[in-house]
Each structure stands twice: as structure tokens, then as C-alpha cells.
Design brief:
Elements: H1 45-51, E1 57-59, E2 65-67, H2 72-84, H3 90-112
Antiparallel strand pairs: 1-2
């Protein structure tokens, strides 16, 4: 055996990052998507038919459907106030307008991009 050059062996291919498991959550691949069930807002068929073509509903980070630009709490309040419409008292009507403005601004930003 010669003490000169070593013979070169072919390199083993490195597996993709997705092949390694995430050490923070054992047994779950790092690139595996979150498979939480989506929790939909309790909308009537008419409400859903109105909102879905406008893309007014989004799924938040924890898998809950909400109005674009609003948190889940704001979405639930907005839905309740929206259903009451003009039957709200002054304070609730103001809250309806504020939440509606937040939602509308987010809709405009989304459609502009």
C-alpha cells in the first residue's frame, strides 16, 4: 500500500433538509405543513356566497377563519354587529363602522397587491 495519494471515493448525496426531523417536535418532519383542522366562522349560506367571491375571509395562523384584517375576536364581534345592522345602539354602531373600516382597508391593500 502506497503512502502517496488517497483514492477518492464518490461522495454520498446529502439528503434534503426535509428529510431531517425537527428536534423541537419529535417525530415531525421540519418541512411538514401544519395539519390543524380549519375552524370556519358560522356564516349563513347567503353570507358565505357574498364574502367568498370578494376573498374577504382568511385563515389565521392557528387555523381559524376570520375577516381579512381582523383578529378572530374582532371577526366574531363584526359578524354579530353586521347582522344587527342599523338596529345597533350608537356605541355598537360606531364599533361596527370601525371594524368595517379596518376590514375594508385590508381588502383594498390585498386587491392592490
Amino acid at each position: 500500500m502506497s503512502l502517496g495519494k488517497k483514492t477518492k471515493l464518490p461522495k454520498k448525496p446529502t439528503p434534503p433538509v426535509a428529510a431531517f426531523t425537527d428536534t423541537r417536535r419529535p417525530g415531525v418532519a421540519a418541512a411538514e405543513p401544519n395539519h390543524r383542522p380549519v375552524r370556519l366562522l358560522e356564516l349563513t349560506v347567503e353570507e358565505r356566497d357574498e364574502l367568498e367571491p370578494q376573498q374577504a375571509l382568511v385563515i389565521d395562523a392557528v387555523g381559524r377563519e376570520c375577516f381579512r384584517g381582523l383578529t378572530i375576536a374582532e371577526s366574531l364581534e363584526f359578524l354579530t354587529l353586521r347582522r344587527l345592522g342599523l338596529d345597533n345602539d350608537d356605541l355598537n354602531f360606531l364599533k361596527l363602522i370601525q371594524l368595517g373600516d379596518l376590514h375594508e382597508a385590508a381588502q383594498k391593500r390585498f386587491h392592490a397587491s
